[in-house]
Write a structure and sequence with these properties.
Elements lengths: L1 H18 L8 H18 L6 H7 L7 H20 L4 H24 L3 E2 L2 E2 L3 H20 L2
Antiparallel strand pairs: 1-2
């Protein structure tokens, strides 16, 4: 739930900054990409922090080397953060991050069905997680095409 809160609060803060005269944040595409970058920076940090074991447990048993998968997805998220902030790569970064979220969704399904926890908090139920995931993908799609 924290990534969704970071996304929403970041969008609001960057939008307000744009309305108060910060030129970069007067571009709605940049507002969305910046908020997404903040959100993905947060989620990527969990891949190496104290929540790492929780993320490793989320990987369905049918996948090999969950530790490497968690590391790899964290690296991809960080690359996505960089890509979101560079005008030349922003659109492809949005598309790649949306595809990454789709690819990671089985881990969310597994975590919800197994009632796993992240940082001591139970993961959201599958319907709630599905809505959150749809919001993330829709925001990425909007950021990709807003200019």
């Amino acid at each position: 739930m924290a990534p969704l809160i970071v996304l929403i609060v970041s969008i609001l803060l960057f939008w307000i900054a744009g309305r108060t005269g910060v030129a970069a944040f007067q571009d709605s595409g940049f507002v969305l990409r910046s908020a997404l970058a903040a959100m993905f920076a947060l989620t990527a940090s969990a891949h190496w922090g104290r929540r790492r074991p929780d993320l490793i447990r989320m990987v369905p048993p049918s996948f090999p080397r969950p530790d490497l998968l968690v590391t790899g997805t964290g690296v991809l998220e960080l690359l996505g953060v960089i890509g979101l902030m560079l005008p030349m790569t922003a659109r492809i970064a949005c598309i790649c991050l949306a595809l990454l979220l789709v690819a990671l969704f089985p881990a969310n399904v597994y975590a919800a069905r197994e009632k796993l926890t992240i940082g001591g908090q139970r993961v959201p139920s599958l319907p709630v997680r599905s809505v959150i995931q749809a919001i993330f993908v829709a925001t990425l799609a909007a950021a990709a095409w807003l200019r």
